[in-house]
Amino acid sequence: MKHKIIFLITIGLVFLYLGNIRAEMKPDTFTLSPFIGGYLFEGDQDLKHRPTYGLGFGYSFDDSWGMEVVFNYIDTYVDTRRELNGRNNVDGYLYRLDGLHYFKPMKNLVPYFAGGVGGLTLNPSRGEKDTDFIINYGAGLKYFFSDNIALRGDVRHILSFPENNLLYTVGFTFLFGGEKKKEAVLSKDSDGDGVYDYQDQCSGTPAGVKVDSTGCPLDSDKDGVYDYQDQCSGTPAGVKVDSSGCPLDSDKDGVYDYQDQCSGTPAGVKVDSTGCPL
To answer: Sign of the C-alpha dihedral, residues 51, 52, 53, 55?
Structure first.
């Protein structure tokens, strides 16, 4: 058992070293998670701590939430001289329905919290079965070394009242599907300006308006008013403008402030080209 765990961890570390791919949890994906680990029984159960093997089938609703159906097999035996129903060997079957919440879902390393309900069946060899309702909670990590494969570690507290057990596992998660939706999202251009939504910093640009590489309308004279709204194109750099892109004319004499040499001319007074009264 130890050799198998060491082998899995070694493979994972090799992939961690070789792989530097940015991956993440993806919406609408199905997951398959084979794993191995250990199951620790509480002392008064008189059952030996033993290896466990299992498989999980999951589904991700989005990049933060998912659910998983999990089955574990535990090959254990009575840990005292007293035999159970005349037999030492005990087969354990743990089955769970869990919810998962992922944190930092756009990173290669994805921690998660999980919890759920299920059952634990202990079946002495050729004896009677004993099934208990269980609640579990815990946490884990997934490290993606490719778009569809992640190394996974998980620890759970298993409550089968009044017993408290511990389950720890390591394995892999394989992701299936989700690519079509991801591609559709990445290729979406809601305002039709030629820049995809995930790159567009100015969404909702009117049809036909020319934009730059960030999806924002052009502003040729850099006055803060887009060309398609600018009624006074070619404003000199640094000149203050109004919402229509035209330079300010505070005294309303028809000469822009930056050209007006006689500011504050009374209303109605005729001025020359420099803004001074005749």
So the answer is: negative
Tens digit of pLDDT for each residue in 63-85? Answer: 789 999 999 999 888 866 554 44
**Half-sphere exposure of 273 toward its Cβ, with a 13 Å CA cutoff?**
0
Q: Is the confidence at residue 86, as pLDDT, over 80?
A: no
Write out the DSSP string of 46-105.
-B--EEEEEEEEEEESSSSEEEEEEEEEEEEEB-SSS-BTTB-EEEEEEEEEEEEEESST
Residue 140: CB partners within 8 Å, gap ≥ 6?
Answer: 111, 112, 114, 152, 153, 154, 155
Q: Is the pTM of this model over 0.70?
A: no
8 Å CB contact between 247 and 239: yes
The single-letter code of the amino acid at 272 is D
Placement of tokens 């208990």 in the chain: 132
Hunting for tokens 């990173």 — which residue is that?
Answer: 107
Q: In whole numbers, what is the pLDDT of the chain averaged over residues?
A: 82
The pLDDT tens digits for 55-65 are 999 999 887 89
Exposure string of 249-270, with b = 16+ CB inside 10 Å and e = fewer, is: bebebebbeeebeeeebeeeee
